[in-house]
Write a structure and sequence with these properties.
Helix content is 29%, strand content 28%. A four-stranded antiparallel beta sheet has the order 2-3-1-4, with helices on one face. The longest helix is centred in the first third of the chain and has 14 residues. It has a single domain, classed as Alpha-Beta Plaits (2-Layer Sandwich). The chain is of the alpha+beta class and 86 residues long. The two termini are 14 Å apart. It is built from two helices and four strands. GO terms for molecular function: dioxygenase activity.
């Protein structure tokens, strides 16, 4: 069985919701041991919309995931584990 090394949460947004997404991502990085990526203004990689990546370890998924669910204010958040075998 693969071991989970960390998680990525991708916050999706568009021009109208970019500032809302920035505030959410910056607040997550302020409150938790989360690394905030760039605010992309185009789809990057497999992501269908503009996005910002939040990276964090498995030890905080139990607090980061519920927090994102409660404070996303309608933004779509896609989360996946990192195993090193992607």
């Amino acid at each position: 069985m693969q071991r989970i090394k960390g998680y990525h949460a991708h916050v999706y947004y568009d021009a109208a919701t970019m500032e809302q997404a920035r505030e959410l991502c910056e607040e997550a990085a302020r409150l938790f041991p989360v690394t905030m990526g760039r605010m992309h203004q185009k789809p990057v990689g497999p992501h269908p919309d503009w996005s910002c990546q939040l990276a964090f370890g498995p030890e905080v998924v139990g607090v980061v995931l519920p927090w994102l669910a409660l404070y996303r204010k309608g933004l779509v958040v896609f989360m996946h584990p990192e195993t090193g075998d992607e």
